[in-house]
Each structure stands twice: as C-alpha cells, then as structure tokens.
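hey so i finally got around to running the thing on that chain from the lab meeting. sorry it took forever, my laptop kept dying and i had to restart like 3 times. anyway pasting the input first so we r on the same page abt which one it is
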Amino acid sequence: MLEVLSATDHVIALKITGKLGAEELETVTGLVEASLAATETTHIFIEVSDFSGFDPFALPAYFPRAFAMLGKLNRFGRIAVVSDLRWIRWATRLESALLPHIRYETFTEDERDQALAWVEGRRELPHGASIRIIETDKPDVLGFALDGKISAAEAEAIAEHFNNSLERGRPLRLLGRVGQIEGAELGALFGHKYLEMKIGMLERVERYAVVGGPIWLCAWVAALDPILKMDLRHFPADEEARAWAWLGARPQSENPLVA
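ok and heres what got predicted. didnt touch it at all, straight out
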C-alpha cells in the first residue's frame, strides 16, 4: 500500500506499508518524473512501517523509467527514510554509499517530524549538531567536542574552521572530547576541504589529546601514537582538566559551527 502525504513544494512524501504493485510503482514514478520536470531539485521523504517487497510482475515495466532517472541523480537533494525496520535502515545506508552525491539519512519512527523538517529545509542538520568548537585562551590550542554523527555540513564547517588555523604557520595543539560516535556521511569523510584539513593537521599538530569516548578509542589512540609524528594521548572523560593542562591552555566557550 502506498499513501502520498502532504509536504511543501519540491518534496515528495510517501508512506509505504505491505507490498507495492504496478499501480503503486506507477504513482511513485509519475511523482518523481513530474517533480524533475517542474523543479531543479527534488527532495524525498519515505516512511516505512511495514514492507513485504514488490510485485515481481510489475517490475519489468518499471525498470526502463527507473534507469532513465540514473542520469538525473544530481537533481535529487535530501532523502529521508523513516523506519524502525533494521534491514530497511541498512539497505538505505548501502544505497547511500553507492550514490554518495545524494544526501540520504535514516530516522527512527520517533524521529519522523524531525526527518520531515530536514527534508523540507526547515532544519539544517538532520540529527542535530554533533560537533561543537571549544574556544581556548591560547590561539594555537584548538578544541572540539564530538557527540553523534558527523554530517556533511558539519564536516565542511569544521574543516573551514581548522584550515584557517593552519594558515597561521605555527605548531598546533588539539583536544577532542568524544561522547558517542555514530559514524559520518560519506560526503563528510571524502570532501575536499575535510581531506585537506586532515592532511594539514597530521603535519602541524604537535600534541593531540583525545578525551573520553567508547572503550575501544583508548586502544585505537595507543595504536596510532607510535605511527604519527604528533604526541597523541588518551584521557578518561573525568580527567579532561589534566588533558588541558598537558596542552597548556584552558577552555573558554563552546559553540556549534552549524546551527
């Protein structure tokens, strides 16, 4: 069963339950084709509470029109998939990796309103700010706090922020406070500015303190320390003050780079 939901212009909003047959596939294809013809960028919201597949007899007629859209992938913008079904969420992440130029995000059913707000452009970050910049009392000591999933917008913003610091031409010291790590958008990891920032940081940072994070992070830091030129240390979450003392600075304020 397919239900077309109300949404703002340039957004196709759908709810899927059960099996999709020829009529439902025709509706979806028609909506997408009409949107691509009417506007430069099409955004899609899909809510899946139950899904048992496609009618196999309906697929042959659908494939030619679907393949025709592959040449227009740059015309798709934000795509949100809302579901508590684990396999749907994993399938969406796989498709996102295969089509990195499209902004896919998965949401639970409890996050439905948040997902729709993001697709409609009323919310910049799909899951809220996960990176905050920590300002310090020393210009060459930088800090950030990470808690959640890094979005492409945040990776771009933090790369811009740290690249500006690299231009000062002096050795840097860095503190990263880590809460939960929930991965990153593929575009966030492979964006030009982000990679440029990572390479520059490896060459210029003399001390890097990693504070807190999951249990495996301590072992990861210990394994990397002998490999990197910088002095890399891990501190438990309750020893952040000792980490700042090691860097020779004090935190002043914290602010998200992307609202």
